Amino acid sequence: MRDRETLPRTAVGLDHWTARPGWSCVVGYDGDQPVGYAYGAPLPEGARWWGGLLTDVPADVTAETGIRTFALSELMVRTPWRKTGAACLLHSALLSPRREERATLLVDQTHPKVHALYESWGWRTLGGLRPRLADAPTFHAMLLPLPQASSY
Ligand SMILES: CC(C)(COP(=O)(O)OP(=O)(O)OC[C@H]1O[C@@H](n2cnc3c(N)ncnc32)[C@H](O)[C@@H]1OP(=O)(O)O)[C@@H](O)C(=O)NCCC(=O)NCCS
Q1: Which of 5, 72, 110, 152 could join 40 via S-S bond, C-beta 3.0 to 4.6 A?
Q2: 150 found inside a domain
Q3: Structural domain boundaries enclosing 25
Q4: Domain count, the chain
Q5: Model-level pTM?
Q6: Residues with CB under 6 A from ligand 1
Q7: Measured distance CA(108)–CA(112) in Å, rounded
Q8: How remote is the CA of residue 58 from the centroid of ligand 1, in Å?
Q9: Which of ligand 1's atoms lies nearest the C-alpha of 86?
Q10: Tens digits of pLDDT across the chain (152 residues)
Q11: Does the residue 152 lie in any domain?
Q12: Interatomic CA distance for residues 81 and 89, integer angstroms
């Protein structure tokens, strides 16, 4: 078994996310070939997610209840299936069953084309965000209203 120090960053991130209550993942296939995946989890009450927000917003915008916001942590499509619509399908498959009122994601500010892609899918930018971690990049924090919001 490898200790956490020697695991690739993506594996540590995956461990962290899969342990969260409500974690959900979709994997797309083209025949027997895996095409890509998307996963995320609801933000817990008092989530640290918003801690590095660089933009002033009213407190209620970032108030988390545990059932308000689904965080899209990862979306990845293998190169041969990019520009085929697979990414949008995975995104929809993950988010369409969700009952939270909104989704959030962070996109690296040095990836303007990915930012524009999310905007084309209806996401809006809340502001800049830099997680309070050493060497963290600066992100655009984005929000997307979810249509199936439930009052639980
Ligand atoms: C993001 C992703 C799922 C979108 O797939 P898609 O809808 O098929 O769209 P594309 O792959 O054509 O990406 C759109 C544009 O963003 C660019 N882009 C994609 N991922 C990028 C990244 N990680 N860094 C910089 N640019 C990126 C692409 O080069 C493309 O630019 P182009 O139109 O000039 O060719 C796919 O590109 C991907 O898996 N990227 C790597 C993982 C990633 O960055 N995920 C998003 C994390 S927030």
Answers
A1: 72
A2: no
A3: 4-145
A4: 1
A5: 0.92
A6: 75-77, 82-83, 87, 105, 107, 111, 113-114, 117
A7: 8
A8: 32
A9: 8
A10: 455 566 677 777 788 898 899 999 999 999 999 999 999 999 999 999 999 999 999 999 999 999 999 999 999 999 999 999 999 999 999 999 999 999 999 999 999 999 999 999 999 999 999 998 888 999 999 999 999 777 55
A11: no
A12: 12
